[in-house]
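Standup notes, structure subgroup. Blocker cleared on the nicotinamide-adenine-dinucleotide input:
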Amino acid sequence: MKTYFVTGGAGFIGSNFVLYMMEKYDDIRIVNVDALTYAGNLENLQSIEGDRRHIFVQADIRDKAKMEELFLAYQPDYVVNFAAESHVDRSIETPEVFADTNVIGTVTLLNVAKAAWEKPDGNFGKRKFLQVGTDEVYGSLPLDEPDTFFREDTPLNPHSPYSASKAAADMFVKAYGDTYGFPVNITRCSNNYGPFQFPEKLIPLMINNALHHKGLPVYGDGLNVRDWLYVEDHCKAIDMVLSQGRLGEVYNIGGHNERPNIFIVKKIIEECAQAVDDIRITEDLITYVEDRKGHDRRYGIAPDKIKADLGWYPETAFEVGIVKTIQWYLENADWVSNVTSGAYQDYYAKMYEGR
Ligand code: NAD
Ligand code: DAU
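Run returned:
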């Protein structure tokens, strides 16, 4: 039986990953370590409550003593590091919070895993540390060169404090591989969407605002392009990289599904209006607002390497995924009000006190 040390497993992608793995494998143990910031929510894991294969621990990845204790207690075979501050707009307000969790947190985990896994001969056995990275570390692509994509050898050129912190974390992971022969993989994925995404990100924000006839704030001219991937396809890719990825390699993950933001917003309006049969959900709700500072123009992944090496491909067409996602938010209105109300917001406010 393999033991997976999953960090950030109460967040959006992390909880989808935990559920995906529990569904797919019987003989598995997941130690899910999450600090439960505003973005982490135990309700995401309700469907596996009481399942003995899943152990949830509320802890901060920056807490070295706690991480050491957990490594000793559970002897994990794999680390999958999702834990992070993930929202670009917040990083523009408080970059230091992002440096703390995304960089110091990752280095703390690397240190603890290395100490726990290293054998007297300097080998690490069949262990692996997978860093869940982002395509944002590559910077921005021009709109007028639609055939240019991010590849694994594209130089890192992060613009936002969020992507700078993720690039720094990737570089530490790479350095542990290069210096100590530590067994690592880095994945860099494009924009995810699907169930359990905190409604501060474009797609869930627009769905929930549209359903409540609130304004839909589109940054700048709305022509920025993102490459959208249904979250389950990302989870599947991570599982494949864990089991088959060549050590030390980076794998880009993306859906070849580039869309301008305004297309996404209009599609959501159309699908929401149809789903609830409400003529008040129209394009009149769109408001163009001030652009995000340093707003990257276009992201686009060429997932050729992960396709060729591991046989991964995105299975969920955007038109299918977006309808499933809208349906999920319609059926989980309570989840939305819980995660956006009191306790979680207070926690986040506290994190920033005195910084
Ligand atoms: P999220 O914000 O929904 O979840 C992050 C989780 O990490 C939360 O549960 C939070 O409580 C936890 N966390 C935060 N700080 C922590 C700490 N110090 N210790 C322990 N837990 C902590 O993020 P997400 O969208 O699910 O992203 C997960 C990972 O995937 C991140 O590393 C992100 O950079 C990366 N990623 C996200 C996307 C995307 O589109 N959302 C795309 C590519 C890569
Ligand atoms: O590319 C992967 C990245 O995708 C991940 O690493 C990040 O964790 C994740 O948050 C996401 O980053 P983005 O900045 O691309 O996602 P966001 O949903 O914040 O914004 C998507 C696009 O929509 C972006 O061009 C900004 C725009 N936008 C966003 C919001 C929240 C708006 O126009 N209006 C909005 O209200």
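Discussed briefly. The radius of gyration is 20 Å.
Next: hand off to the docking folks.
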